Amino acid sequence: MASTAATILLAASVVVMAASAYQFEVRDEIGWSKPTGKERETYNEWAAQNRFHIRDTLHFSYAKDSVLVVTSADYLKCNASNPIDEFDDGSTVYELDRPGFFYFISGQPGHCKSGQRLIVRVMHPLQPAAAPELAPELPPSSAPTSEGDGDSRWPEFSSTVKLSVVSYFVAAFVALIVTLYMFV
User: Which residues cross the membrane (predicted)?
Assistant: First the structure.
């Protein structure tokens, strides 16, 4: 009985750990490609909208290109001659294995200088969450009316927040099942 409970507890721990990592699709449907100038956002604007944690992964999808992991100095100079790591398989999954900054550039000539580069900041695991900023007060003339669809000042929750909430409930549910199994 004890070994079965231990096995279930171990399986539950693995499920919770797997649920806590997230795979980000770099630039979503656009993927890793040389900017044309018509994009809605740059790679770094995309990264700024996300919160990256240790064990999260970045999925780079590309054709006839490459992904180079470089130092901050090489990032700033678009220097592709001395990469820390290099990928050219068309579908690269890169694991963020430490807190701090990661620097990515394209290995194709001219692409980095055209904006195909990315900085990702991985949050420290013990870093407390920053207090959310309060929305500015709207002037009375621009306040939503009762005819609207409610308070439009609330931001939409990011996928990382949604994933954290789901992970919490999965862990609580698994703990409940294990507890019931051990005592019933």
Answer: 165-183
- Interacting residues of 25 by C-beta distance below 8 A, sequence separation 6+: 31, 59, 61
Q: Do 103 and 71 contact (CB within 8 A), yes or no?
A: yes
* Domains of the chain, each with CATH number or no CATH: 2-125+157-183 (2.60.40.420)
pTM exceeding 0.70: no
| pLDDT tens track for 10-28 | 455 544 444 578 999 998 8
Mean pLDDT of 167-173: 72
- How far apart are alpha carbons 86 and 88 in whole angstroms? 7
Lowest mean pLDDT among 75-84, 105-114, 155-164, 169-178: 155-164
CA triple 17-15-52, angle to 5 deg: 35
List the structure tokens of 32.
């890793």
| Residues near 29 by beta carbon (within 8 Å), at least 6 away in sequence | none
